[in-house]
Specification:
- Helix content is 17%, strand content 30%.
- By secondary structure, it is α+β, with helices and mostly antiparallel strands.
- The strands form 9 sheets. An 8-stranded parallel barrel has the order 4-5-6-7-8-9-10-11, surrounded by 5 helices. The protein has a 6-stranded antiparallel β-sheet with strand order 16-25-17-22-19-20, with no helix packed on it.
- The chain is globular, with a radius of gyration of 28 Å.
- The structure holds alpha-D-galactopyranose and calcium ion.
- Calcium ion (CA) binds next to loops.
Length: 800
């Protein structure tokens, strides 16, 4: 009896005390229509932040910023590849001390949701998987490949050593752990997902809640009976529609949007992405009013420092260094207008209590006057031992990141020829030390025309690797030259293809030590020359001229390592501007800041003040292209939206528009209004390489058309692979919001092609399927927002 009274008293106490992560054992589980925290209804208001994207000294500040938004939970991924950079060597210290991060969250009264992968996506190199898995060439990633599963188990156990003591059942802050990540966007494999579940259950115990996240359109594919199911969708989405199917299948289940996308990530060569604050806040307000839990992805995105930014596919779309994400807390930890709007709304759901205070930034923002990077060392100064034979991938050379120099001798070729291969990701071609051109995977390039050459001419190809693909089936993304390189010549209409042999493969690893060593060595030689200690021709002297040798070329580009210094009397956060540079990597005081690329949209790199010091600070730039001017300065604001493209991203070249006038459509008719997928089957199969979709009107009667995704169905009625797809033509594209034609096959239901207001009907989108295909129908997805804005009414489709 007394026990019962105490229990009841405790419960009522719990109801009035602020719900925050207190020390002491507890429970968290899915109840009827709601989550239950220590037996009481609980709405998860989670803020997604990634500890490796924040310098450790700033962790607590960022957690406090999330708390000031009225959040009660922090949601994190665990990135396998940052903890096990070399097979079998684990690091959970410093910036990798994930347990310490969770303890800091708890200290600040926050619960924690952990998403330990093994795959995480997250616009992170290879979706969090370690590159060295690819040393086993035929590995099946995210499947029950014995080696993959063996390494997953070892990794998860190591993470468990850190985090299992911190579950709520053990008195820690961790209330839930996620199993895999959006597996529905990868495949259908319940046995694999079950194996990951069993592995995690074995580590964290039966009592801890486990969940899986997916999209409302595909969560059933791998949904396991004994896991909590949550949905991912973005700002603006029609929320009832997103939970409709879950409600039918599990009417009593709590609802949670495990990734509510506050903004979006940026890729090189396209505009900075933003999403309206109002749409985000309204969506969260709606969810809270309905008792729906959420995690706001990202609440604070931070930075993908070093080489950790990933890339998207189909195609190859590497992500920029900043992971600002247009999140309420910006890349450098400050409150944005979105933050204040959100905070105001969240106050309504704070049980009438005062909102936690917004913490002061740990550092001021400073500027740095322009300075020059005067020291230089060419790539050659950093070369490792060559390996001869066929072209090797980075992985075959045992190298994760960086660049490789491939060289061979050519036979005599009297006329122009075409050099062809798979170059991952950015290749520059030199003949007899003269720059010929580049082959850029981002632009889907695979070949380059080269001039006539004499026998024995030296061909050098420098291939720089960018982030490995983090989404879809293409995550098995080898770097360097993949496969053979051929030369195709044409004489008297006869085509001859020869495979180039006898290569010298030289790895140029991307790390601070390599860069500093190369610069020190060249500086040493130069100092000796200056001191008159060395006279005449010094072999090492050639280094200082760059391997391109010729004076003319060295005037316009100096690919290699550049070093300079700046002095500070006061330390603070700053944004170093690299808009005069080519492409590469930056290190400040030994910290890898991230990638730069002149094409933008990102032109500055965030430098956390905690990595700077009073007095002399060092900057090293590894520029694989070479700068126009080797100068840098620090500004007090980031530049995340300045494109310097050779050519616009639009696909409106009228010469690319197919003439459809005398063609019979494969199908024509009317789509239904509203959200969700629609399928159209052709009356008979059609053969062709171009899929041409003509939109003649919209459901709303206006002239702006938007389409989120399109699939073509093959002769077996199944979806054709969209890997080889490119956009051939679009009459109108809203480039400002990145609503270009390629968005209809980027695998993302929240991104879309959209025409510009006033462009006039009919609208035409032409997709090149890569080769001739038999098409029997297609699937169409309008925008995910309420009322499906821009949804098409009358359409015609042609296969040509
Ligand atoms: C998915 C993934 C996340 C992230 C977002 C886009 O939801 O689960 O890791 O990649 O897309 O930012
Ligand atoms: Ca899309």
């Amino acid at each position: 009896m007394r026990r019962q009274i105490i229990f009841a008293l405790l419960l009522s106490l719990l109801a009035i005390t602020p719900v925050s992560a207190q020390k002491g054992k507890g429970t968290f589980e899915a109840g009827k229509g709601t989550f239950l925290l220590n037996g009481k209804p609980f709405v998860v208001k989670a803020a997604e932040v990634h500890y490796p994207r924040i310098p450790q000294p700033y962790w607590e500040h960022r957690i406090k910023m999330c708390k000031a938004l009225g959040m009660n939970t922090i949601c994190i991924y665990v990135f396998w590849n940052i903890h096990e950079q070399k097979e079998g060597e684990f690091d959970f210290t410093g910036n990798n001390d994930v347990a310490q991060f969770c303890r800091l969250a708890q200290k600040n009264g926050m619960y924690v949701i952990v998403r330990p992968g093994p795959y995480v996506c997250a616009e992170w190199e290879m979706g969090g998987l370690p590159w060295w898995l690819l040393k086993k060439k035929d590995i099946r990633l995210r499947e029950q490949d014995p080696y993959f599963m063996e390494r997953v188990k070892i990794f998860e156990e190591k993470v468990g050593e850190q985090l299992a003591p911190l579950t709520i059942q053990n008195g820690g802050p961790i209330i839930m752990v996620q199993v895999e990540n959006e597996y529905g966007s990868y495949g259908e494999d319940k046995p694999y997902v079950s194996a990951i579940r069993d592995c995690l259950r074995g580590i964290y115990g039966k009592e801890l809640a486990l969940f899986q996240c997916d999209w409302s359109s595909n969560f059933e594919k791998n949904g396991l009976d004994d896991l909590v199911w949550t949905m991912n969708f973005g700002t603006g989405a029609n929320i009832d529609q997103q939970f409709r199917r879950l409600g039918q299948l599990r009417p009593d289940a709590p609802k949670m949007c495990s990734e509510f996308w506050s903004g979006w990530f940026d890729k090189w060569g396209a505009r900075h992405e933003t999403r309206p604050a109002k749409d985000m806040v309204d969506g969260m307000d709606e969810m809270l009013s309905k008792g729906i839990s959420f995690s706001l992805y990202m609440t604070h995105g931070g930075t993908s420092f070093g080489h950790w930014a990933g890339a998207n596919s189909p195609g190859f779309a590497p992500d920029v260094t900043s992971y600002d994400y247009d999140a309420p807390i910006n890349e450098y930890g400050q409150a944005t207008p979105k933050f204040w709007e959100l905070r105001k709304m969240m106050e309504k759901y704070n049980d009438g209590k005062k909102m936690p205070t917004v913490p002061k930034a740990p550092m001021p923002i400073i500027t740095v006057p322009k300075f020059e990077l005067k020291e230089f060392a060419p790539f050659m100064a950093a070369m490792t031992k060559p390996v001869n034979g066929a072209p090797k991938t980075f992985e075959e050379m045992g190298m994760g990141w960086g660049a490789m120099m491939y060289s061979t001798r050519l036979p005599e070729i009297a006329s122009q020829s075409v050099l062809t291969g798979e170059f991952h990701d950015f290749a520059q071609v030199f003949i007899d030390k003269k720059y010929i051109g580049k082959i850029d995977r981002v632009k889907n390039e695979k070949s380059l025309t080269i001039p006539a050459v004499k026998k024995g001419a030296e061909l050098i190809i420098i291939v720089e690797g960018m982030g490995r693909i983090n989404f879809g089936r293409a995550i098995k993304d080898f770097k360097g030259i993949v496969g053979n390189v051929t030369l195709t010549t044409e004489t008297d209409d006869v085509e001859m293809v020869m495979t180039l042999k006898n290569w010298m493969n030289v790895a140029i690893p991307d790390d601070y030590e390599t860069a500093a060593k190369a610069l020190d060595m060249v500086k040493g030689v130069n100092d000796q020359i200056a001191a008159g200690k060395v006279k005449g021709s010094v072999p090492a002297l050639a280094f200082t001229q760059g391997y391109e040798g010729s004076k003319k070329l060295s005037d316009i580009m100096k690919p290699g390592y550049h070093r300079g210094y700046f002095n500070l009397s006061k330390v603070g956060d700053t944004f170093l501007n690299f808009e005069t540079w080519g492409k590469g990597q930056v290190y400040v005081n030994g910290h890898a800041l991230g990638r730069i690329w002149s094409i933008g949209p990102q032109q500055t790199l965030y430098v956390p003040g905690c990595w700077l010091k009073k007095g002399k600070n060092e900057v090293i730039v590894l520029d694989v292209v070479g700068p126009k001017e080797a100068v840098v300065w620090g500004q007090d604001k980031p530049e995340l939206n300045k494109l310097q493209l050779e050519k616009s991203n639009k696909h409106n070249n009228i010469g690319d528009k197919p003439d459809l006038n005398s063609d019979t459509p494969a199908a024509q008719g009317q789509f239904n209004g509203g959200n969700g997928w629609q399928t159209v089957k052709f009356s008979s199969p059609k053969k062709g390489r171009l899929l041409c979709l003509e939109a003649l009107s919209t459901q709303a009667g206006d002239d702006v058309v938007a389409i989120a995704e399109i699939y073509a169905l093959g002769s077996d009625g199944k979806r054709l692979s969209r890997e080889p797809w490119t956009t051939k033509y679009a009459d109108s594209e809203n480039e400002n919001g990145n609503h270009t034609g390629d968005k209809v096959y980027d695998l993302q239901e929240s991104t879309y092609w959209q025409t510009v207001k006033g462009a006039g009907f009919p609208h035409l989108l032409v997709i090149d399927l890569g080769s001739e295909q038999t098409v029997t129908g297609f699937e169409y997805l309008p925008r995910a927002e309420q009322g499906a804005p821009g949804s098409v009414k009358n359409y015609k489709i042609f296969i040509k």
